[in-house]
Amino acid sequence: MRPFLIAPSILSADFARLGEDVDAVLNAGADVVHFDVMDNHYVPNLTIGPMVCQALRNYGVTADIDVHLMVKPVDRIIPDFAAAGASIITFHPEASEHVDRTLQLIKESGCKAGLVFNPATPLHYLDHVMDKLDVILLMSVNPGFGGQSFIPSTFDKLRQVRKLIDDSGYDIRLQVDGGVKVDNIAEIAAAGADMFVAGSAIFNKPDYKAVIDEMRAELASVEA
Ligand SMILES: O=C(CO)[C@@H](O)[C@H](O)COP(=O)(O)O
Ligand SMILES: [Fe+2]
After folding, report:
1. What is the pLDDT of residues 101-126, one digit of tens each?
2. Tell me, what's the ipTM?
3. What angle (nearest 5°) sits at the alpha carbon of residue 207, between those of residues 151 and 58?
4. 92 CB less than 6 Å from ligand 1?
5. What value does the mean pLDDT of the chain take?
């Protein structure tokens, strides 16, 4: 498996000083910035859009920005995020009328593309599009808020998707998002995930490096 990636969700960052907080978490050893976009329509919360992504780039953030779109409709915002510096764009298939077209739109915009599955979203949306995916994101909470508890049925789903990816032979990251903590990250990795989104577990602690180091130590036990 490829190196594990830790992607702090900036949903739990300090929005009043976002640039500094993102720099701090990257300096603490994070790999990727996870950027949650909520529209108060597809999910019951409202967050940030392309202008904030552009502002982070203008501030000097060079790490990959992983844009998790919880919006419906989804297509019209994709070119704006690509222009604003997104590296990866993922979306929920039930929020798109034409999943294949949306994936193509992301790729044509120059970004990596991924599908996101809520805890109760069936995996059949993966049929016929595996060749277009760079990321599969399994939500381990219902989308909309940080700080929720990991839903245990995600473990079975992770094992299923890990097998699908391995059998497909495609180069696809398996990301998990929601309730990821130091004390469950090893079990999540053992079930097949290789990219870990964590918001409250990191940003709600004073020492980001200490948490990320602890997560990497847990992951090292799985890699060995
Ligand atoms: O997409 C989402 C929530 O919808 C996430 O990215 C959360 O922001 C994760 O937060 P924690 O569960 O890690 O606090
Ligand atoms: Fe997310």
Report:
1. 999 999 999 999 999 999 999 999 99
2. 0.99
3. 90
4. no
5. 97
Per-residue confidence (pLDDT) for residue 83, from 0 to 100: 98
Element containing residue 67 per DSSP (H, E): strand 64-70
Distance from chain centroid for Cα 168: 21
Question: Residue 110 corresponds to which amino acid?
Answer: G
Shortest-distance atom of ligand 1 to CA 180 = 13
Q: Whose CA is nearest to atom 2 of ligand 1?
A: 143
pLDDT at 224: 54
Q: C-alpha angle with apex 92: 133 to 17, nearest 5 degrees?
A: 100
> pTM (2 decimals)?
0.98
- Interval between CA 192 and ligand 2 midpoint (Å): 18
- Decide whether any atom of ligand 1 lies within 6 Å of the 119 Cβ: no
H-run or E-run covering 117? strand 112-117
Distance 67 CA to ligand 1 centre (A): 12
Ligand 1 proximity of 66 Cβ (cutoff 6 Å): no
The answer, yes or no, to whether residue 151 has pLDDT greater than 70, is yes
Question: Which of 6, 36, 71, 142, when mutated, tests ligand 1's pocket best, judged by the most ligand atoms within 8 Å of its CB?
Answer: 36
Residue 75 belongs to a domain with what CATH number?
Answer: 3.20.20.70
Section 207-215 average pLDDT:
98
The minimum-distance atom of ligand 1 relative to the CA of 150 is 12
- The rounded distance, in Å, linking the Cα atoms of 23 and 5 is 17
- Select the more confidently predicted residue: 223 or 58: 58
Residue 218, domain extent: 5-223
How many independent structural domains does the chain possess? 1
Q: Annotated active-site positions, please? A: 36, 177
